[in-house]
Model the fold of this input.
Amino acid sequence: MNPYEKLLIQNKAWSADQKLADANFFGRLEKQQSPKFLWIGCSDSRVPANQITGTDPGEIFVHRNIANMVVHTDVNLLSVLEYAVVVLKVEHIIVCGHYGCGGIDAALGNKSYGIINKWLLNIKEVYKTYQNEIDAIEVHEDKVNKLVELNVIEQCQDLIKTSTIQKAWKSRNAPTIHGWAYGLKDGLVKELVNIEPDLSSINPIFRFDAEELDK
Done:
């Protein structure tokens, strides 16, 4: 059996198990999507949002990219953010990085990865901001993991610079933004930052005028 065929067989088994455990599971799932969480995570296959949090399909709206980045020119990310915040009205956004992240590791080096270089530039900018702190760490693995944490915190800050978040904070005092780092070695999450809705906490240069937020 090839790996692809195995996926199809496992899908049938999973569907049967779900129906056995809850005959109405797929009926409910089909009729509505009302997640309270938006997950912005890494594309790494070892970091699945539902399994990590013990949640069912439909409970978390998910966006994933290399190194869980919030890039202001990324229309994909911005579209997901807008839909989650404006249409689904999520109450929480989780930016989840993970220790040992390959994207973070690559950004700390000088090897060329073709088109990926353009994406890694965003992570290198985070490194540049904290270069003295990171360079003071002797063990490379620890450097990577420190940048993992700092990168998550910076991406949370980049979220609150968007008009989508600021409009939601003004109109409904939500969502709260959380920064996590996930450990591949133990499966546990470390909370790095929690940002409650508060427009006054945003640096004025990134804060939109109140009239603009009403548009």
